[in-house]
Amino acid sequence: MSALLDIRNLSVALKGGPRLLRSVSLSVAAGEVRGLVGESGAGKSMIGKALLGILPRSVEVVEGQILLDGDDLLGLPPAERRRRIGQRAALIPQDPLTALNPAHRVGPQITDRLVDILGWPRARAEARALDLLAEVHIPDPGRVMKSYPHELSGGMRQRILIASAFAAEPALIVADEPTTALDVTVQKQILRLIAEMQARHHTALLFVTHDLGVVSKVCQTLSVLYAGKVVEETTVRDFFRAPGHPYSAALLAATPKYTDPDGSLTPVPEAVIAAVRAEVEAAETEWQHGRR
Amino acid sequence: MLDGRGAIRRRAGARLWLSGGWLLLLVTVALFAPLVAPQDPLAQDLMSGRLPPFWSAQAEPGFWLGTDSLGRDVLSRVIWGARVALTVACIAGPLTALIGGALGLIAGFYRGWADRIISRLVDIWMAFPPVLFSILLIAVLGTGLTSIILAIVVIDWTRFARVVRAEAMNQGAMDYVAAAQVAGFSRLRTMTAEILPNVLPTLVALLSLEMGIAVIVEAILSFVNLSLSTDAPTWGGMIAEGRTSIHQAWWVLAFPLVALFLTVLSFSQFGEGLKDRFDPVLR
Q1: Does ipTM come in above 0.90?
Q2: What residues in B contact A54, CB-CB < 8 Å?
Q3: Can you tell me the mean pLDDT for A43-58?
Q4: pLDDT tens-digit series, residues A158-180
Q5: CB contact, 8 Å: B128 with chain A?
């Protein structure tokens, strides 16, 4: 069976500048939960943004393909691409505080796209929204639908965004560090909720995070990113048993252990960083040659 | 925190009621000027020139705020002057907001070449001194109400364009805009349904301020005799006439000045009050 999402050789660069993603290849099968880990600036979020067509203005795709259901999104005309993404994919954003429009009530923010983009009758969309809000354990969904975002807590808003992401039964959801902006106690609940919703709806999930602990709880497979390059692609089980790449091993070793609260942190060794950097630079030189 | 918010609300409330009250009074008397004004604002009576206001011993009944040097009733002229001032404010303000706001919204949301063109246009506009520009425009267009309104729109749209552009850029960087894009909404729909409602509180505050400015500009142009015909009752014209006889009849200058001052202040305060009350984030 071909993959639901197949990213091939994707390079994204600052306009007229250096590459931020360097020939990234990555695939997600239907129903698969893939973690995308790496340190800040490695390009984790950039992959999700390129896929969803929301890259910042200053960057552009310079090569590669993003196949969703076998069709290259980048080859489609913009309106068609937007429609396709709207139907098949969704986003759980990083910051629930800015991801809901403060000027509108919660209800329409979930139902409008079902009605306007997917052509559902209004009543069906509203019933669906109520069901989903109940599914994400929001008490009194009817009241919440009529609330403005500023009347709700961060955790509540993230639940609403999760409900909204699942509303149109997308095949793929990109979760862009969905717990980073929340406090620790809420993080755990939200994580559990995402896992629960994923299992119930069999949606494929691309889970962008810098937290290996989160990966071990939610994901089945993962890709490790360094400086815009995938350095390892493996299953979560294999990764935690025996990481294949020295950088992955160092990353894993740097994770704080709750079982040993007094133990000192192990930073990623200089030598490993130098090695992985050399690897990326070699690939970059090779790519530059190929272009000429 | 709760107390602080309450205090802000109370203050906003008083501000809103006071300024709103004055504006409402003004609108009412302007609408019903023929009924409310005790005298014909144009009727001259040289025998009863420079009559003092009602509290003075020499005052005559029927001329509450006295008369000017030609014997015209000051109160009636202030009331009819409100008509001119409010007409200009109510047409020029919204028109300016519409044009400047739309251009600012497009520039701030679409960026790119649209932004470059609009922003350069604003830069060029800002290089002209506004008062001279308006006088020049009136000289070209000829005097009259339409010319004043047109002059205000042509000069002041940049004020809206600049502010709305910055605000639209801010809003455009929010995650909810990305979410709308992912959901499949068009750029146009995102701009009008997502960004615009969040820019609206700022736009309303600015519109109110602009209406006050329109009143000032009208007064300035009347003052230099570039608005309506010379004997038409306008606040600016009254101030200009009153200036020549300030030592003999200060009231001819003072009352239109007070009306002007209160009106401009009320417009700006009303806008701020509205913004505080209706901004969903502050609320």
Answers
A1: no
A2: 178, 181-182
A3: 90
A4: 999 999 999 999 999 999 999 88
A5: no
